[in-house]
Amino acid sequence: MNLRERFLGALRGEEVDMVPAVSVTQTGTVDFMEASGSSWPEAHYDAEKMADLAVAAYEVGGLESVRYPYCLTALAEVVGCGLKEGTRDTQPSVETHPGLDGIEMPDDLSQAGRVPEILEAANLVRSKVGDEVPIIVGIEAPDELAAHILGSSNYIKGLITDPEMVEEALEVSNELSMEYAQLVLDSGADAVCVPGYSTLDIVDPNSFKNLIKPTYREFVENVDGDIIMHMCGHIDQIIGDLADCGFEGISIEAQTEIQKAKEIIGNKASVIGNISTPNTLLNGSPQEVIKECQQALKAGTDILAPGCGLAPRTPTENVQAIVKARNQYYQK
Ligand SMILES: [Zn+2]
Asked: Which InterPro entries does this UniProt record tie to the protein (predicted)?
């Protein structure tokens, strides 16, 4: 069983020889930038640099996947949001919001903004790592794009005061997110990872059920391929709704317990995670990473992975400890 077969098998709930150790969230660290000679901000914008940095997480960090890009702003840029470029250790961010009336829908999304670079990166990664390593591409969820279009405070306020406006923004955004996801999957990615924006810091469980859940369901129904939902924070109250949406995998942070998540999700989706990125991976020792990985494996994680995007200053030895922990677990 090669790494790609193992990852896709685990993601789809099939039996595999061991739990894969990957990252479904961002992997651009300063160490990997130095090792690959490819740094932010250029690696956000250029296919070649994007691919080189992504491959370093596999070749140097030992992760059993290649994952890119490193931010969630490509679609926002396409519809006319103003971006701040980012630096060597900060991601691009959205600075201005066009509003629903000001958005520009592209004639050909595959040629718009940075999209062709991200699509081309799949070919470049494949030519570097071959067919046996899974490629995972992060894309903006419809609710993330809706919040970028409206501005996050308008989005959050609108959920309460103007749900019709939010619904309209979600509809427009979903059209684009679905089209983009399909382009990415057709470019050669094995799975897309969609980090949901509407965490429980943003919405209450009721709004989630009424507005976000139908949007995600529509997304899953219209995109052909393997889809991972990543949701930050403590999500016990909405994880059942997420499981109903039809995602192949649900990626959780350390605040949500693997065992609890598995109990709620059952066999509706695989559970991915959940090594703490800010605490253990960034600030802990390799021994602490190994300990937390062992706990996640014991709790039954289907895919061992960081709980969220790697902090840029995460030490390489802590990333390497993830696969080490998995190997030790199976030696016992
Ligand atoms: Zn997260």
From this structure: Methanogen_methyltrans, Mtase_MtaA_CmuA, UROD/MetE-like_sf, Uroporphyrinogen_deCOase
Please give the distance, rounded to the nearest whole angstrom, from the Cα atom of residue 279 to the centre of ligand 1: 13
Task: Check residue 130 and give left, alpha or beta (phi > 0: left; psi -120 to 50: alpha).
Answer: left
CA of 253 to the centre of ligand 1 (A): 6
Find the distance separating the first CA and the last CA of the chain, reported in whole Å: 21
Question: Cα(100)–Cα(200) distance, rounded to whole angstroms?
Answer: 24
Cα 101 to middle of ligand 1, angstroms: 30
What pLDDT is recorded for position 167? 97
- Domain that residue 123 falls in: 3-331
* pLDDT tens figures, 73-87: 999 999 999 999 999
Q: What angle do CA 132, 304, 28 make, to 5 degrees?
A: 70
Which neighbouring-strand residues pair with 303? 272
- For the entire predicted model, the pTM comes to 0.97
When divided into structural domains, the chain yields a total of: 1
Q: Which amino acid is at 9?
A: G
CB-based contact 245:266 (threshold 8 Å) = no
CB-based burial of residue 48 (10 Å sphere; 0-12 exposed, 13-18 middle, 19+ buried)? middle
Residue 151: give its domain's CATH number.
3.20.20.210
